[in-house]
Specification:
The complex is a heterodimer. Chain A is mostly helical. In chain A, 77% of the residues lie in helices and 1% in strands. Chain A has a domain at 57-265. Chain A has 14 helices and two strands; from the N terminus they run αααααααββααααααα. In chain A, helix 3 packs antiparallel against helix 13. The two termini of chain A are 31 Å apart. By secondary structure, chain B is of the alpha/beta class. Chain B has helices spanning 2-15, 60-68, 93-99, 116-124, 136-149, 165-177, 199-214, 226-232, 255-263, 317-325, 347-352, 362-365, 373-377, 393-406, 423-435, 453-468, 480-486, 509-517; strands at residues 20-31, 34-45, 49-53, 78-81, 84-87, 101-104, 187-191, 218-222, 235-240, 243-249, 282-291, 294-302, 306-310, 332-337, 340-341, 355-358, 386-387, 390-391, 441-445, 472-476, 489-494, 497-502. In chain B, strands 6-7-8-3-9-10 form a six-stranded mixed β-sheet, with helices on both faces. In chain B, strands 16-19-20-13-21-22 form a six-stranded mixed β-sheet, sandwiched between helices. Classes of the chains: A mainly alpha, B alpha/beta. Chains A and B meet through helix 1, helix 2, helix 9 and helix 10 of A and helix 11, strand 18 and helix 16 of B.
């Protein structure tokens, strides 16, 4: 034991940094965590005061509209971060929501199915696709990006076949469309669903062993296996959960629009959700895909794009802005991350 | 093993030419919170095999990075190569290359899926035809000449991934040196080229390096392994806490003198005495076990015993541990735990039965670098903190804080990312992860690989503590010196078979080396 004690004291001085140093690090970390939140608030204030948008932007109607419209993309981004946490891409979420949308509406419209059955079926379709994705990726070991990209393309074909390119409008349950258009306490109803879904995913990823296991798998798959985790099963479940959420997002699409259009729920939505997930990984818990950061990212992007279009900026700016925001955020977080590593 | 012996005589006269190939003067470097280098000066003579050693955090990697131009030193220091001075605050990769410094790093940057010829041509440039295509015949010719010059056992078309690790490292070295003007000018800097190589490959690589040195090549060699430094170096410079602890040569290069310089005091016992075995109770038994490279392996491990396994890479030593853990398929025979046959369907079953496994490849199979010390330490006991529908992170952190003290981990907080700790401290975290489960049987595969002398002593002290509490240990290490100190008993694995069993006082590094290398069966 004497050896041990000597060893500790002799090497201790190199172990700790000075207090001013750790203080600086803390400030850096704080900036990194809340930069996106602060940017969001600043943009919001800017559009509220700017003469071109001050009359339209900060109105209850506009805010309600933006919030209500983000439920679907918000749920899709939740669907995409669960597999991302364990290091897998699910490129199919957008297309799965498109399929579940037309099936949900089609069941009511063509088969006269009652609403609960239609919803259940739409969500179940998501689960089944997730199961198939998960099986192919986790058990057989095919690259998830390729698998889910293939599935996404195929689903788009199925949607086209099922709808013959026509929007489904008739006999859609009024209960569902009311959910999509009405408010509770002045807040769009769809937002409550997003809030509940976000809370559930947050709880799952941050406060359950399952979430911790997913993070471990994402960090080092072999090490995860060697601490006794059943990696295949856990990854498979991640894809199923992702599919369920994507299926639910399809139901939300019908609720919001009152119809089911084959033009909605596509790879484009996947890309938007993916952008939000990556942008979100630069905030709140930098370096990790996290629910709060992703939600901040969703609303930051949505309000900025709305502000710009209210100011009369041409439509193509939206895509350009979404892409540029992601690019800049990831760039900055990489640079800050490097600085931090250099200090340590 | 024989190559270094032949060099002992030459070392003397080469040192005496006295020409300085590299002179480092007053080199300093501060990082926020620490002085990584503090006024370090030393010379490397022309044609010398010069070793640079020191514990983790001693500043040796910082020094190499300044030489390579990755970091800048502080103004006032200088680096002179063959008389040409570079101010320490103005180093750059270009300046290093122009001065004739060639670097080969740990995990040499070779391209496994490309051929030897392609690997060598990247770096030199391909011979081209008039319209820009590659003249493969010319590339091949140059490759053959290079392979001959560096005495590498390979053909130009072989894919690098099919080479032995030592040859891979030599390809990287040949690539670094191929363009050297006037063959022996300049300096070859090797940054722990042997850290991830198994013993047999180290011997091969060192043999190759010794031959270049004998032909007049100046080599600066950074290493963790004292035995290889003692075997090969003409002079040794030791750093400690960023300062020069001393430079030794000739007779003075021996392990105890070097350890004294590294840790700053004589270290009587790097390896603690393991407590005596006070029980005959057999905890683990292997009966006629086969699978992978293993053939009919029988062994018994008693309570509180440390059983060493000596064997070369490919002898089946790692597979043996993995089989006991349930991570490798057992084809025949039985494994019994406390007298009952085990049927582990997956790793969790082995863990629940009281088995713990510290893998050889820390980076690949044990560490979650981007996760916190706390998350790493509790990775095998996460479910303990799942109470009332919530992961109790606060309690986990509190447990980890006390474990950090108990396991001698140097970390600023339990939230620190594992990747920012030194190798030795990372290994202590991995060991703590398993000892927190209070295992019956602890399987250690190369537990001190890439770890400095101090951390090595601490790691074995932790193991000793577990053994005192009744844990039994199976330990594999390529360092036979280490194995002979920590083991109560050693079995020798040779090509998948147990060929010998040794007890004190017969356990010695020389005997183990002989037995591990010879393929004949030895009666015990």
């Amino acid at each position: 034991m004497t050896v041990t004690n000597e060893a500790v004291t002799s090497s201790a001085p190199t172990g700790r940094g000075s207090t001013s140093d750790s203080g600086r690090q803390r400030v850096l970390l704080f900036i990194e965590r809340y930069a996106l939140v602060v940017l969001f608030i600043l943009t919001f204030i800017f559009f509220s005061l700017w003469s071109k948008t001050s009359s339209t932007f900060p109105t209850a109607a506009n805010i309600r509209n933006v919030l209500g419209n983000q439920a679907v993309i918000g749920i899709l981004s939740l669907a995409i971060i669960i597999p991302l946490v364990c290091g897998e891409f699910d490129f199919s979420v957008g297309s799965v929501s498109g399929l579940s949308q037309v099936l949900c509406a089609g069941f009511m419209s063509r088969l006269g199915a009652p609403l609960p059955v239609a919803i259940l079926f739409a969500v179940a379709i998501g689960a089944v696709i997730g199961l198939s994705n998960g099986n192919t990726v986790a058990r057989i070991g095919v690259n998830s990006l390729i698998v889910t990209l293939g599935v996404a393309t195929a689903m788009a074909g199925v949607v086209e076949w099922y709808t013959k390119g026509q929007t489904i409008v008739l006999h859609i349950s009024k209960h569902l469309t009311d959910l999509g258009s009405g408010n509770w306490f002045g807040i769009p109803r769809t937002l409550y669903f997003l809030a509940v879904a976000a809370a559930l995913v947050y709880y799952l990823l941050e406060h359950t062993p399952y979430g911790r296991y997913l993070h471990s798998i994402g960090s080092n798959r072999d090490a995860a296996r060697l601490v006794g985790l059943r990696v295949e099963r856990l990854v498979l479940i991640a894809f199923v959960l992702s599919g369920v959420l994507a299926g639910f997002a399809g139901v939300m699409l019908v609720a919001r629009n009152g119809t089911a259009s084959p033009q909605l729920g596509t790879v484009n939505d996947t890309l938007q959700a993916l952008a939000a997930a990556f942008l979100g990984a630069t905030a709140i818990k930098p370096g990790r895909f996290n629910v709060l950061g992703t939600m901040v990212a969703i609303f930051f992007l949505a309000f900025t794009v709305t502000g710009l279009s209210l100011a009369g900026v041409a439509n193509w700016i939206n895509d350009l802005f979404n892409g540029a925001a992601l690019f800049v955020a990831v760039l900055i977080s990489t640079i800050v991350g490097r600085k931090r590593a250099g200090v340590g | 093993m024989d190559a270094p012996a032949g060099r002992a005589g030459e070392a003397g006269d080469r040192g005496q030419t006295g020409e300085v190939a590299l002179r480092i003067s007053h080199l300093s470097k501060a990082f926020p919170g620490t002085r990584a280098l503090d006024d370090v000066s030393f010379d490397v003579r022309r044609g010398e095999f010069h070793a640079l050693i020191g514990g983790n955090g001693s500043g040796k990697s910082t020094l190499i990075k300044i030489l390579a131009g990755v970091y800048h030193g502080e103004a006032g220091g200088t680096i002179a190569v063959e008389g040409r001075e570079i101010p320490a605050d103005r180093t750059s990769p270009e300046a290093a290359r122009a001065a004739g410094l060639h670097f080969v790093h740990q995990n040499p940057a070779v391209f496994p899926t490309l051929s030897v010829a392609e690997n060598l041509a990247i770096g030199h440039g391909f011979e081209r035809t008039a319209i820009g295509g590659v003249r493969w015949a010319a590339v091949r010719r140059r490759t053959v000449a290079l392979l001959e010059r560096f005495d590498i056992q390979a053909r130009p078309d072989t894919l690098v991934r099919d080479l032995r690790p030592a040859e891979r490292a030599m390809v990287a070295i040949a690539r670094a040196l191929q363009d050297q003007e006037g063959e022996q000018r300049g300096l070859l800097v090797l940054d722990e080229p042997t850290a991830s190589l198994p013993r047999a490959e180290v011997t091969r690589l060192l043999g190759g390096l010794t031959r270049y040195a004998a032909s007049g090549q100046t080599i600066l060699f950074v290493s963790h392994r004292l035995d290889e430094v003692v075997e090969t170096a003409d002079r040794v410079t030791v750093l400690r806490d960023g300062r020069l602890a001393g430079t030794v040569e000739g007779e003075d290069i021996n392990e105890s003198r070097l350890i004294e310089l590294i840790v700053g005091r004589p270290l009587e016992h790097v390896f603690p005495e393991m407590p005596p075995i006070d029980s005959e109770q057999v905890v683990l038994e292997l009966r006629h076990v086969s699978g992978g490279p293993l053939v009919d392996v029988n062994l018994q491990l008693t309570k509180g015993e440390v059983l060493g396994i000596a064997g070369l890479l490919g002898s089946g030593r790692s597979e043996l541990l993995k089989m006991v853990f349930g991570a490798f398929k057992v084809r025949g025979g039985e494994i019994l735990l406390d007298g009952a046959p085990t049927h582990f369907r997956h790793i969790g079953d082995g863990m629940r039965a009281g088995i713990a496994y510290v893998p050889e490849d820390r980076g690949g199979e044990a560490a979650f670098f981007d996760m916190s010390v706390s998350e790493n330490m509790t990775a095998a006991i996460v479910s303990r903190y799942w109470k009332g529908g919530r992961l109790n992170q606060r309690r986990a952190d509190a447990d980890v804080r006390s474990a950090i003290g108990q396991f001698l981990v140097q970390a600023t907080s339990e939230r620190q990312e594992l990747g920012t700790l030194s190798g030795g401290n990372q290994q202590k975290v991995v060991l703590a992860r398993w000892l927190l489960r209070r295992p019956k049987v602890l399987l250690l595969d190369e537990p001190t690989q890439g770890v400095d002398v101090n951390a090595r002593a601490e790691i074995y002290n932790l193991v000793r503590r577990a053994v005192a509490e009744g844990c039994s240990v199976l330990v594999v290490t390529s360092d036979f010196e280490e194995l002979s100190h920590v083991s109560d008993r050693v079995i020798v694995l040779n090509q998948g078979r147990v060929t010998a069993e040794l007890r004190p006082p017969d356990i010695s590094p020389t005997t183990l080396t002989e037995l591990a290398y010879t393929s004949r069966e030895v009666a015990s």
